[in-house]
Specification:
- It contains 8 helices and 8 strands; from the N terminus they run E-H-E-H-E-H-E-H-E-E-H-E-H-E-H-H.
- It is of the alpha/beta class and about 220 residues long.
- The protein has a single domain, classed as Aldolase class I (TIM Barrel), CATH 3.20.20.
- Strand 7, helix 6 and strand 8 form a beta-alpha-beta unit.
- The longest helix has 14 residues.
- It binds D-xylitol-5-phosphate and zinc ion (ZN).
């Protein structure tokens, strides 16, 4: 069964407490928290203060996706705010190996996100130090975009790379995941499904999460 990580970006910010209660009662495994700085991506979302408040609402894993420049400047602050897993973009890291060491030394699982144009081969010499590879299936910055079809081939290639090396690395897919394409994504080799609009804009978010969890 895939790990389900609803993205709060598509939730109702006026009713975050109710959204948390819904997630807590649901089959959701992780909270996927999208942080944008208006520089790495052309949009700004939310940061530490919101995550700190959300932390009081749940014991579920916080999967924080940093779409920001110089993530090393904020890793400790996100740990303090409640992050369990911290994902940085390879395109934003000049010294990725050092960034991963920093995240681990703070006691978090380390993730690396790849934009649609970034090849998985960039990870060849660092894969053993990564807990999660987050494959972007849309260009980061906005929810509600259409899934880029080529991503499935990318997932299959990455699955083979991880398997051949005998690593426990999780493969996470983020962007445009729907009830219709989720089975295909899982069959391609994804372990974690992020879903924003599909969950929060559906009539019955809890039922949608249940469907995604039991998709395969
Ligand atoms: C996009 C974010 C995603 C986004 C996904 O930049 O990283 O996590 O919230 O939203 P949907 O599922 O609506 O594509
Ligand atoms: Zn995300």
């Amino acid at each position: 069964m895939p790990i389900i990580a609803p993205s709060l970006l598509a939730s109702n910010f006026l009713r975050l407490e109710d959204e948390c209660k819904m997630l807590n009662e649901s089959d959701a495994d992780w909270y996927h928290l999208d942080v944008m700085d208006g520089r790495f991506v052309p949009n700004i979302s939310y940061g530490m203060p919101i995550i700190e408040q959300l932390r009081k609402m749940t014991k579920k894993t916080f999967d924080v996706h940093l779409m920001i420049e110089e993530p090393e400047r904020y890793a400790e602050a996100f740990k303090k705010a409640g992050a369990d897993r911290l994902t940085v973009h390879i395109e934003a890291c000049r010294h990725l190996h050092r960034n991963l060491q920093q995240i681990h030394s703070l006691g978090m699982k380390a993730g690396v996100a790849l934009n649609p144009h970034s090849p998985i081969e960039l990870l060849t010499d660092v894969l053993q130090d990564i807990d999660t590879v987050l494959v972007m299936s849309v260009n980061p910055g906005f929810g509600g975009q259409e899934f880029i079809q080529h991503t499935c081939q990318k997932i299959r290639n990455l699955r083979r790379m991880v398997h051949d090396r005998g690593l426990p690395t999780l493969i996470e897919i983020d962007g445009g995941v729907t009830v219709e394409n989720a089975a295909m994504i899982v069959r391609s080799g994804a372990d974690v499904l992020v879903a924003g609009s599909t969950v929060f804009h559906s009539k019955d978010p809890k039922a949608t999460i249940h469907t995604l969890k039991n998709i395969a």
